[in-house]
Amino acid sequence: MGISRDKWHKRRKTGGRRPQPRKKRKFDLGRPAANTKLGVKRVHTVRVRGGAKKFRALRLDHGNFSWGSEGVSRTTRIIDVVYNASNNELVRTKTLVKSCIVQIDAAPFRQWYEAHYSKLIGRKKGAKLTEQDEELMSRKRSRSAQKKYAEREKVAAVESGIEEQFVQGRLYAAVSSRPGQVGRCDGYVLEGKELEFYMRKIRHKRHAK
Predict the structure, then answer these.
(1) pLDDT for residue 113
(2) Of 47, 102, 150, 153, which is most buried by a Cβ count within 10 Å?
């Protein structure tokens, strides 16, 4: 018996049995769930009806995530699965599915921010600057470049919730792709009301333990 998506084997709401008008068909076919886990990339190709292909990701550890308010995307490492609205078991087993909340490495976004705004982010107060940081801050620039960075600095403010995450080196992000269908784990960095909402959920889950 394969996995079938037809309705003829199900009973009616009243409890009566349905007559079976035909045998199984190819378009009724279902397949086992991918249950994509965190790990070194492993993707299988599945041929589907019409000769098209699906990419069944069995393990993934990187994804392309966008920082919406800054309009920038970077490929970064997925560190952990922290919340799933549908099932806590998917968090325990670190299963990657659409709409799950993950923690990603903040380094690529920090590097972009510091290069774009010429301003440090994600540093603890009183922390000693590295040689690279000092070089970035004291670099000589032309007048036009100074003017450009001065204009950018007017809109360089980042909300406190994200700045705290930069200090930890991890950002909360939501997965918006379907890893079991497209073989990728892409998404976006959580911001604003959505970040507050999921932070409350994550805190509540920790206290519930």
Answers:
(1) 93
(2) 102
What are 86-95's pLDDT values in tens digits?
999 999 999 9
Query: Which residue has 């009243």 as its token pair?
Result: 14
Of 160, 156, 166, 158, nearest in space to 76 by CA? 166
Euclidean distance between CA atoms 33 and 36, whole angstroms: 9
> 140: which 2 tokens?
């000589």
pTM: 0.88
Q: Long-range CB contacts (< 8 A, 24+ apart) of 93-97? A: 93/35, 93/37, 94/37, 94/38, 95/35, 95/36, 95/37, 96/36, 96/37, 96/38, 96/57, 96/60, 96/175, 96/179, 96/185, 97/36, 97/175, 97/178, 97/179, 97/180
